[in-house]
Amino acid sequence: MSADGSLDRPAGRAGTPDDPVATAGLDLDGARSLDAADPLAGFRDRFNVPRHTDGSEQVYLVGNSLGLAPKATRTWVDRELDRWATLGVAGHFTGDLAWAPYHEQATQPMADLVGGRPDEVVVMNSLTVNLHLLMISFYRPTPERHKVIIEAGAFPSDHFAVESQIRQRGYDPTTSLITVAPRPGEELLDDDDLLAAIADAGDALALVLLPGVQYYTGQVLPMAAITAAGHAVGAVVGFDLAHAAGNVPLALHEWDVDFAAWCTYKYLNAGPGGIAGAFVHRRHVADPDLPKFAGWWGTAKDTRFEMATTFDPIPTVESWQLSNPPILMLAALLASLEVFTEAGGMAPLRAKTERQVRYLDRLLADRVGDRIEQVNASELHRRGCQFALRLRDGDRTADGKAVHAALEAAGVACDWRYPDVIRVAPVPLYTTFEDLHRFVEILEDVL
To answer: Of the four, 138, 191, 403, 440, which is 20 to 30 A from 28 by CA?
Structure first.
């Protein structure tokens, strides 16, 4: 990870003698040779891969929407069901898996994945709930400083959340909301335009809230540079990391990010609607003047059950908690975090992502290069797992929705995003190079 928050380029680049991706054949044997050399190949067996109607495993390329279920999830969840059945309410305080502190098991592994300190990271609620709670603390508009910068193509829930926060504080989104869009004729946000928008807003800017990875194009934004630019004009900087956590390396503490929130059901494989995560930099955590919505689970742990009505905030990000966490959802998350820890964290996963991205680039160019347009960035440091593909028919956009339906019918799990993009995401924990070869072969047949 470079100082500006972009992704470093490891050794073994295309064209070098030690680059197996550049020299591998584009036939099935070439794909299998890359799988045979993959140090993470064994982790696929830790996941349940859905079956196609013909009984074969799906080519599952939609982990950017819902990650696969770790096989251990059933064990983790069943264990808590058994504890509930045998212990009842005593399960809150009995044994090493007592439910009252249960969420603390996720703190260190989650902090490792997002580059935070343990006192800065907590799992709680859902993503948009966490964004609202954090904006209560960090969007503090005044008549002189009330503007918020988001991207023009923000995920709808983020846009809705920001607009509602502006209105709730008595301001008007038509004058308080700044949106930054790609340049005319371009698909991606220009890094310089983002930084210039922050500088131009200047003393009027209260908050920057941007994605770490853009959901539609898969573009990785320069999070450290954005944070520095926001702080330079006196603004607070937060990130929605829904498509970044578990996908790209993050260093939230080092980058001096003020706050962040993310879901866990995409690349973190915690199951549909899984419990979310939140980060608050430690320089804010103990600030007594920072407003926040308070709840029972945010007050001091040693006196919580004395039932006092004076709020005594936990001296960590846990003080943002409202209620006791959902144990079964946490168990599912812990099953997945266990796999991330055993895989060695984000560094080896990122290395495999880069290999798979370059391999799929080669396959697409060789087999269907004249029929597709990659909406995603071309530079590796601006890419995570996700490809965004627009289908072409000569000079016009093809019916990508029909192609998506045909891919699904042929056993490829991917997704369609309005208006005209098919998203596919090779997830390094469970996607094989043979999967990618099979995907392109099916795509070529469909086209």
So the answer is: 403
295: amino acid identity, one letter: G
Q: Answer whether the bond into residue 419 is a cis peptide, omega within 30°.
A: yes
**Tokens 């995401």 appear where?**
425
pTM of the entire structure?
0.94
Q: What is the pLDDT of residues 70-91, one digit of tens each?
A: 999 999 999 999 999 999 999 9
> Which CATH number is 76-342's, of 2.60.40.10, 3.90.320.10, 2.40.50.140, 3.40.640.10?
3.40.640.10
Q: How far apart are the first and last CA of the chain?
A: 38
The C-alpha R_g of the chain, in whole angstroms, comes to: 23
Across the strands, what pairs with 422?
389, 416
CA distance 390 to 398: 8
Domain topology for 20-61+345-446: Aspartate Aminotransferase, domain 1 (3.90.1150)
- Over the stretch 372-425, which tens digit does the pLDDT of each residue have? 999 999 999 999 999 999 998 777 777 888 999 999 999 999 999 998 899 999
